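Ticket #4471: structure output looks truncated?

Reporter: J.K.
Steps to reproduce: submitted the chain below (404 residues) through the standard prediction queue, then opened the result file.
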Amino acid sequence: MQDRGYLNQCTNLDRLGNICNKESISAYIGFDCTATSLHVGSLLQIMILKLMQKYGHRPIVLLGGGTTLIGDPSGKDSTRKILKEEEIKNNIKSIKKVFNKILDTSNNKTSPIFVNNADWLNKLNYIQFLRDVGSHFTINKMLTFDSVKTRLDREQSLSYMEFNYMILQAFDFYQLFKNKNCILQIGGSDQWGNIVNGVDLIRRKLQKEAFGLTSPLITLSSGAKMGKTESGAIWLNDELLSPYDYWQFWRNTDDRDIKKFLYYFTEIEINELKNIYKNEKNINNLKILLANEATRLLHGADAAKKAEQTAKITFEKGGLGSDLPEIRVKLNEIEKGIGILDFIANNKILPSKSEARRAIANKGFKIDGIVIEDEKKILKPEDFKKNIFKLSYGKKKHYLIKII
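Returned output as attached by the reporter:
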């Protein structure tokens, strides 16, 4: 973990290291289920679980069906949208697909254990919980944690419901320690306070030793937030983001971030990475390597290769790559005519018509390589050669528009 840059803080690194060298352990990371997919901001945590498996340890994936009902205040300026239980169940089902793709499920000793904290949190008796668990927490200490302190310092409201989140997370760790022999909780650095609470609760209630470990929060050299782009989040589920768009996201990595990301988001061995970085002077070749490896991990080798070929055909040869994202339109709609601004906004190529208007004014859109000059342009059948054309936004976003 240290070699790959995954390690930020640990409650007792030497002691944990000694245990991990002698025996196989179980460790968990919790994921809130606020959408049908995780985005690439969660990928570092999944890579850590994959690394654990490589060295014979067993990951526990906690999908927070209970805590998602409340919402983690860490790093948030406002209360999350409250979801219904049915929505959360559907989100959990969808999110699990990604873990089953990236993690190794074939080895009985290291295959991931999936747990849902709704199984125990939904059964809690409130008065009993306050007596058994709440008595181990002080308001004084809870007010010092960043997740609480930041909101209060900014005079942004923090509901009593959210304030309880850190106690529930500590209780999750206690439950997994007691019932799954899980001795380690891992999370992003913004989770440090919550994780330490769980370590303390286990020590107080069971007089046993548990460990907490955090990974660094990823900061991009550009100042942007990891996984957020102009067109939206970089989702891990392919029904929300195509393998080609996922490949393209990594291919467009800032030059300053490429070395860090090769360590974070690929399984290439450390020594091999050092040699590659030493000998490869073409930064674009490094970006293609990152895109191929990251896409292979999530979508498989065939999808990665197809995405690379599509990019080559599209960018180097100006052709129509078969793996480009497709937008399909009905013939009768095209015969009536569709305004280009409506088309761009309705298909979420850009978030609004006003942004589409600005992009066209700046000569940002092309049809088959020809700049769209008029924002009032109407798409008609004659725009389609053999029922298809390529719509390009800037140099890096391309779509196949097909008549069906």
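Triage note (M.O.): checked the attachment and the full token line is present. The longest helix spans residues 85-102.
Status: closed, working as intended.
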